Amino acid sequence: MNTPLLQVNNLAKSYQGSRPVFADIDFDVNAHEVVCLLGASGCGKSSLLKAVAGLHPVDNGEILFRGKPLHKPDARIGLVFQDPCLLPWLTVQQNAAFPLTLQCETKLSQTEVQARTETVLQWVGLQSFADAYPDRLSGGMAQRAALARALVKNPDLLLMDEPFSALDAITRFNMQQLLLKLLAHRRNAVLLVTHDIDEALILSDRILLMGGSPGHIVHEWRIPMPQPRAKHLHELIEIRMDILERLSDVAGEHLLPNGVVT
Amino acid sequence: MSALPIAVRQAKLPSFNSRLIKLGNSLSVALLGIFIAVLLWWLATGPLLIDATLLGSFSPGACLEALWRLLQSGEIFVHAAVSLQRVLLSLLFALSVGLPLGVAVGLSKVLEQATSPLFQFIRMISPISWMPLAVMMLGIGDAPVYFLLTIAAVWPIMLNVSAGVHAVDPRWLTLADSLCATRWETVTRIIVPAILAHTLTGIRLAIGIVWIVLVPAEMLGVSAGLGYFILDTRDRLAYSELMAVILVIGFIGYLLDALARLLIKRVHHRKNASN
Fold first, then answer.
1. Which tens digits make up the pLDDT trace of A155-212?
2. Which residues of A touch B193 (CB under 8 A)?
3. Which residues pair with B155 in a beta bridge?
4. Cβ separation of B180 and A73 shorter than 8 Å?
């Protein structure tokens, strides 16, 4: 059996002088797989993603990327934030090319950088905005530019922290479709944090429900239906109801005093 | 598509004509202010007195006449060019010290704590009070002038750069970390461009201070420059020329400040629009 691309074993973290953020986190992400971490705001899923990205240290447990312990950010892991986080003094093209111009990347010639950036901007449909500055972009376009920046390195694993939550419903839907198209073509593995059940159902191969305090994985669903998911609405609705049922349990658990679970 | 009715949207956007009228109004008020100031200046130079020969040489008319002569002879350009060169070079020296120092202080809490009282103390010493020391250390000539101007300019630049580093969006730093950027890359590719507006504000403040310190500094035994020319006109009892040089100093200072303000506005516009 192949080693999972990402393995998270018994992970725990607490911020100084406060209650644990998450504990006993175990999951893995296989190559080419899309896994969604679903949970309510404040359940620790974004903190968990930052820990997996190597940005935050953990108190306990281990993260293995390609079988090796991960303690700091890895160039083969791409990160997309909730906010596009584009650098306002750079054009769209320069923002997308930014990761390729850093030392950690294999030295590429100017022509190669330009060719790769043009390709990635074409994927996200921003080739005609290559010379525009971020202040000229709409929210959806800015997030597409951020996606291009994450994809330009062709990462093995893409970590996405509620990337579409700040967008309006139609733009969010378009972005989800774009992501699915890109994944079908690029075959990157994705760990996506979201609080949107429908987004998780549309995009993921597996859904991990996170909840409780400290945050932990409550349940896991496999979504076997192929894309496009819109053709399998009945099965999806069943899973959706199951997720909602579990969520109400988690909310109830969260409300109980002293963490006692019935 | 906007949900606002067309009439409302039109009301929100001022037309070109109304903007032109607004600009015209503010220009008229500014010109009126200048006119009143010149009138007061003229009255103060004693046009109503019977014997006002000496005061008359300070009058606006005599001053403009002298200015025209200085412009025609080109003499004022030589002195202005020397002064501008000193200002620009001193700003460059101050920037080369203030920028790295400000970044280092902004990045290191320990360094900030260690240097803050010292820097605040030195900052409050008037640059002019370094004059005797500068002459003793560096002799007479250009060197003490550059020293005084640089020491006057370095603090506003350093303190603004340091404040800029504190104000850098933490998300950009997280982005740099996530992309495995080295410390040097984070500083040069993220922090330095991000603090451009703060740096320009520091430079603008420095220009104001340097331009004020320039005139007394150029009285330190140099043979050219606007400060030197002021002393020269006084020694030659050419008071109308003295007033003309004062006008030129004010005018160049105003232009330098306007240029800095324009640059800051452009940088701020881009930054604000992207947020």
1. 999 999 988 887 888 888 888 888 888 888 878 899 999 888 888 998 899 999 988 7
2. 87, 89
3. none
4. yes
Q: Given an 8 Å threshold on Cβ–Cβ distance, is A104 in contact with B182? A: yes
At A50-75, the pLDDT tens digits run: 999 999 888 889 999 988 898 889 98
pLDDT of B166 higher than 50 = yes
Which one of B179, B186, B195 would you mutate to disrupt binding with A, by most A Cβ within 10 Å of its Cβ? B179
Phi-psi region of B139 (alpha: psi -120 to 50; beta: other; left: phi over 0): left
Please confirm whether the linkage preceding A88 is cis (ω < 30° from 0).
Answer: no
pLDDT in tens, B94-135: 999 999 999 999 999 999 889 888 888 888 888 888 888 888
Hey, are the CB atoms on B274 and A135 less than 8 Å from each other?
A: yes
The alpha-carbon gap from A55 to the nearest alpha carbon of chain B, in Å, equals 7
Sheet holding A20-29, edge to edge: A20-29, A6-14, A60-65, A68-69
Q: Amino acid identity of A227?
A: Q
Contact B172 A83 (CB under 8 A): no
Say how many C-beta atoms besides its own lie within 10 A of residue B116's C-beta: 13
- The full length of chain B comes to 275
CA A179 – CA A194 distance, rounded (Å): 14
Closest to A103 (Cβ–Cβ): which among B182, B273, B274?
B182
Longest dimension (CA), chain B: 81
Whether the predicted interface score ipTM is above 0.90: no
- Nearest Cα neighbor of A217 from A67, A12, A6 is A12
Burial class (CB in 10 A: 0-12, 13-18, 19+), A128: exposed
Helices B60-73 and B16-44: crossing angle, nearest 10°?
A: 110
Please tell me the distance from the alpha carbon of residue A81 to that of residue A29, in angstroms, as a whole number: 19
Give CA–CA dist A173/B211, Å, rounded: 58
For B185, which of A88, A102, A134 is closest by C-beta distance?
Answer: A102
Which chain A positions have a beta carbon within 8 Å of B189's beta carbon? 98, 101-102
DSSP state of A227: S
CB–CB of A20/A13 below 8 Å? yes
Domains of chain A: 1-76+157-262 (3.40.50.300), 84-154 (no CATH)
Q: Closest partner residue to B179 among A88, A89, A99, by Cβ?
A: A99
Nearest CA in chain A to B181: A102
